[in-house]
Design brief:
Blueprint: H1 8-17, H2 21-34, H3 47-64, H4 66-76, H5 80-84, H6 91-115
Helix pairs in contact: 2-6, 3-4, 3-6
Amino acid sequence: MFIAPKNTDLLLSEAESETLYLKLIEQINKDFNLANEGIDFPMSISPNELKIQLHEKIYRLIQYKFAEYLNLLYIIDVSEEEVKKMDGSDLVVLAEQVSFLILKREWQKVWFRNKYR
């Protein structure tokens, strides 16, 4: 049964321990490209660097390209309910929380695909 990790660091370490980290990067790159928000994380990117760069990308989308940000969330299939619960008063914190939701959803896709292939 899929149990979502509680934070970004736990999620990334779980992806690494299950040797699915590279699949997670592939999935993120694929979905961002589907949303026409080209992002190309190299397969050699460290989990910490992935976390930082994803956070920066989401922050810039919220700040400057809000319609594209909403489209990205739709394509990745991030829970609208969870996003609506967030406090948007601090954009840096919001971007961090949304980055975690994106990672969580992408991890769920990778995990299920691996488990039930």
